[in-house]
Specification:
The chain has a single domain, classed as Rossmann fold, CATH 3.40.50.300. The chain has a 5-stranded parallel sheet with strand order 2-3-1-4-5. The model has no long low-confidence stretch (mean pLDDT 89). It is globular and about 45 Å long. α2 crosses α4 and α6 crosses α7. By secondary structure, the chain is an alpha/beta fold. It contains 8 helices and 5 strands; from the N terminus they run βαβαααβαβααβα.
């Protein structure tokens, strides 16, 4: 079976997490969330983990090079040999270029980018109605999160423009998943 290396991109509330879980289970590949592997690095007590811990405790962003190093280590594990789904990485065009280099150096398949397209108005409605009680689930905070998403995602989408698969992210979880699978040639 060919390697399935995927990046799932979409605005907050687009259903990325749900779709990533379904794809991970269906393809038997891991879903790798950047936040999770950063916390894992900290727990490991490694030199790199200690560096990440001090940055996070100071409220600083973890630099691209450090995040990339941690992602590279994670992608080298056995459970990623048939592929992976990245969630939260790459966040910048520099990280995207580094990921491409990691995959080329490992003689691995390039990534395919799945973009869940959901209008901002629908995303706002979804987040406000899901009732999770997050402190930032109000219209002002959601608008800010969407602005940051559009600003930060544009360069990554531009980097991968030739391989981005745009999927209509509106509708039921099942309908969206069927569209994703069809676009990936797996339905």
């Amino acid at each position: 079976m060919a390697e399935r290396n995927l990046i799932l991109i979409g605005p907050p509330g687009a259903g990325k997490g749900t779709q990533a879980q379904l794809l991970a289970k269906g393809f038997d590949i891991p879903q790798i969330a950047t936040g999770d592997i950063l916390r894992e690095a900290v727990r490991s007590g490694s030199e790199l983990g200690e560096k990440v811990k001090s940055l996070m405790e100071a409220g600083d962003l973890v630099p691209d090079e450090t995040v990339t190093e941690i992602v590279e280590e994670r992608l080298g594990r056995d459970d990623c040999q048939q592929g992976f789904i990245l969630d939260g990485f790459p966040r910048t065009s520099a990280q995207a270029a580094a990921l491409d280099g990691i995959l080329r150096a490992g003689n691995r398949e390039p990534v395919r980018v799945v973009l869940l397209k959901v209008p901002d108005s629908i995303v706002t409605e979804r987040i406000l109605s899901r009732g999770e009680g997050r402190s930032d689930d109000n219209e002002e905070a959601i608008t800010k999160r969407l602005q940051i998403y559009h600003r930060d995602t544009a360069p990554v989408l531009e980097h991968y423009r030739a391989t981005v698969i745009g999927i209509d992210g509106e509708g039921s979880v099942t309908d969206v998943n069927a569209r994703v699978l069809e676009a990936l040639g797996a339905s």
